[in-house]
Amino acid sequence: MEEYHNWQCYGNSHRFSFCQYPFIISIAAKKVIIQRDSEQQMISIARQSLVDKVSRRQKPDMNMLFLNVKVRRTHLVSDSLDELARKKADLKKKLKVTFVGEAGLDMGGLTKEWFLLLIRQIFHPDYGMFTYHKDSQCHWFSSFKCDNYSEFRLVGALMGLAVYNSITLDIRFPPCCYKKLLSPPIVPCDHNALVGICGVTLDDLFQIMPELAHGLSELLSYEGNVEEDFYSTFQVFQEEFGVIKSYNLKPNGDKIPVTNRNRKEYVQLYVDFLLNRSIYKQFAAFYYGFHSVCASYALLLLRPEEVEILVCGSPELDMSALQRSTQYEGYQKTDLTIRYFWDVVLGFSLDLQKKLLHFATGSDRVPVGGMADLNFKISRSETSTNWLPVAHTCFNQLCLPPYKNKKELRQKLIIGISNAEGFGLE
């Protein structure tokens, strides 16, 4: 952190700093820098709120130190977006979530569940903001025009909040999205400057729309007469709410035929249209939302693929690594119940392993540092073996009764992890 602060202070001087060469800094170290930077911003913003309150001779309230989000499960998206829109000034405070009608206190677990459920709903095709491409198994921004792009800004803020609060999300954006998110990494002072525009290639399109990209690749390698055989112009067509609309890729594009000589230009303009121009307003709003929370010089240290890892964590589950790093309270790792537990878990399908991780930690993603970073703990529960396991997601803790045999443990564990929404207090 000292190195990072020196770089911030003397960035434009000739003084040496390792931060000038971020490729030699590991992603784990960069995550620490971003976490500490976020914590310091949180403390600074909270302190300023406290000073403002006292200077006005008003009684300080603990709630003013946090970004308090109160939502109903039945109106999750609308409540969440309303709360974030109303509390723009508080986005850089520590996040605390309350589900209306539930007794759970947010020590981190409710926040994880809120993100998980919210992302699941916002990215649902029926919501219309993002299009899911089955071939590439990723989401992309809907190009449909609308009157208000504020919801895209709020989704960007949501993703920024996740990074800012060290939460991993199950978001399936293509790598190109993170390249655009760092274009530029620091929000320009000029409000008219273009943001979220980056150089895109056919390879980027392959990661989102492989079938279309393959067709354009075939066009580039076609050995016949392109103009006579394809009869295309510098114009593209898109369906919007059942209406086919046409867009020129360049001025008077509908009158310019695609030929063997200009087909490279056509493909480049087509890719740029799909990944930059057609979604510019949507992505610009998303960009500003993300950076409204995550504005930090630490982003200058990150490559696009590293931003993706910070946002999404790793989808690769290594339960053997989790077994090696697990801590125990009331159990020894050689106890029969613990041996039953790991025999069962290591034999689970990937889907059940993800459910277990979600049940115990509030997220089915693995953080940047791997399973060891979860600080997973199994505690002995002195309740009846008729009870199901209980999890404290704030502390990544699983409370396990001393089940008598492997069959009973497996049955109770599967019931518990398969019915894991909602919070209560013991």
TrEMBL record:
The record's EC number reads 2.3.2.26
| InterPro entries according to UniProt | E3A/B/C-like, HECT_dom, Hect_E3_ubiquitin_ligase
Q: Read off the CDD domains from this record.
A: HECTc
Gene Ontology biological process terms from the UniProt entry: protein polyubiquitination
Signal peptide feature range: none
Q: What function is annotated for this protein?
A: E3 ubiquitin-protein ligase which accepts ubiquitin from an E2 ubiquitin-conjugating enzyme in the form of a thioester and then directly transfers the ubiquitin to targeted substrates.
Name assigned to this protein: Probable E3 ubiquitin-protein ligase HECTD2
**Species in which this protein is naturally found:** Junco hyemalis
The top of its lineage is: Eukaryota, Metazoa, Chordata, Craniata, Vertebrata
